Amino acid sequence: MPIIDPATHPDYAAAYQLAGLKVQQEAAAAAQAASLTTNTSAPATSRPTTPLLTFHPPEYFTDFTLPENAILVGDCHLTRGDITVIGGVPGCGKSRLLVSLAIAGAQGPGASWMGHPVHSHFKTAILQAENGEVRLKRELEDIAIQGHQLSGWLHITPPPRCGFAFGQPEFRAQLRDWLAEIKPGIFAIDPWNRAAPDDKVKDFRTALDGIFEVLPDGPDKPAIVIVHHLRKSASSGEGRKRGRDLLGELSGSYIIGSAPRVTFILEPATPDGEDDRVIFTCAKNNNGEMGPSTAWHRRNGLFVPCEAFDWAEWEGGGGETSNRNSLELADMAAIFANGKCEHTRQNAAQALQDSGFSRSRSYKALAPDGKFARHLSEVNGIITFRP
Q1: Last-in-domain residue among 315, 338, 361
Q2: Domain CATH number, residue 155
Q3: What is the Cα–Cα distance from 310 to 277, expressed in whole angstroms?
Q4: Are residues 91 and 191 in the same domain?
Q5: Residue 159: is the preceding peptide bond cis (ω within 30°)?
Q6: CB atoms within 10 A of CB 272
Q7: pLDDT tens digits, one per residue of 286-342
Q8: In terms of residue numbers, what domain contains 103?
Q9: In this predicted model, what pLDDT tens digit does every residue of 219-234 receive, in sequence order?
Q10: Among positive and negative, which fits the CA dihedral 249, 250, 256, 261?
Q11: N or C: which end of the chain has fewer CB within 10 A?
């Protein structure tokens, strides 16, 4: 029988060559694997030039020195590099609070913002899409009349044409350039739902990542202030929530409550549109003390403390619905010390508002033809009371 050579026979040559090729490939792979495990002269696995994480002993943290002017306001309530959220229902004064921050930053050490001490001078940059030129003109002119000069301290955008397009590289690049030029201590976003229009976790994380990408590094990194809305059912008198429980009233994903180091909640004292009283509560402060809730009169510029606020009524849930609708002679006698003191009309109305009455009801009670006209007399702008 003739001997068949599979390498040359036409019936077997192709299969033979494929089998040989497979053997060669397997041998080459085995040799490569062996060289990787036995070649001690091979270079070590490359590492990133900047460590992705580090571990430190306790003394590293106990010896940490806080950078100068890192804490801007309060007990770490506004700190460079950290996020602070201001939540509230629409129309309660959140945007005005941002402008009041600019006033506090211009005034610097020795001033206060919503009862919290200011520790350094700082500029404020507000990326906002809520208010147009008409509203801002009126508000800023009113603030200038009060004597606050904000040129150089406040930088504010008209509503951007593209919204808060943190997903667009060009938007981020332009915003990064602006912040590098301004060097603000406070960078505010008003409102948050323009940066994350949906309530999904992914949208919230994407917006937050975009914000941090535009911030400068090092000591020039500003504090981030995010203005956000509360849920529609929030701030009702019945079953009123207080303190940390208010975190659950923030609208949307839990991320907006967990990401910030500090969260403030601003609530109207009553649903009365003429009532300018608001309640300011720190619901979260991971780096310091929260502090007590405080009552204020909403203003253009710095808010004014509401000294005679009825906290018992508020804590009982009555602040939203009671409103002390009936203003009686005894209430008038109380603010005039039963005739022993005098007031201007404005001061008398303010005293009645501090006692829990709305602005319109207070001025109506002081009208020359009002309910108490026979008990009041006004000479040269000064009102006196007769029991």
Answers
A1: 315
A2: 3.40.50.300
A3: 11
A4: yes
A5: no
A6: 17
A7: 999 999 999 999 999 999 999 888 887 777 665 444 445 678 898 999 999 999 999
A8: 71-315
A9: 889 999 999 999 865 5
A10: negative
A11: N
d(CA 114, CA 55): 39
Tell me the C-alpha distance between 77 and 71, whole Å.
8
Together in a domain, 289 and 353: no
How far is the C-alpha of 134 from the C-alpha of 125, rounded, in Å? 19
| Interatomic CA distance for residues 151 and 55, integer angstroms | 45
Cα 118–294–348 angle (5° rounding)?
105
Kindly report the pTM of this predicted structure: 0.70
Residue 337: phi and psi, rounded to 5, are 50, 45
Residue 236 has phi, psi (to 5 degrees) of -90, 150
Nearest to 258 by CA among 270, 242, 247: 247
48/87 Cα distance (integer angstroms):
40
- Whether residues 295 and 232 fall in one domain: yes
Domain limit, last residue, from 292, 315, 338: 315
Alpha carbon 369 to chain centroid distance? 46
8 A C-beta contact, residue 100 and residue 93:
no
Mean pLDDT of 3-22: 47
| Bridge pairing between strands 186-190 and 223-229 | parallel
pLDDT band for 33, please (50, 70, 90 cuts): low
The residue that leads in pLDDT, 291 or 14, is 291
Q: What is the pLDDT of residues 84-114, one digit of tens each?
A: 999 999 999 999 999 999 999 999 999 999 9
Tell me the two tokens of residue 164. 């808060």
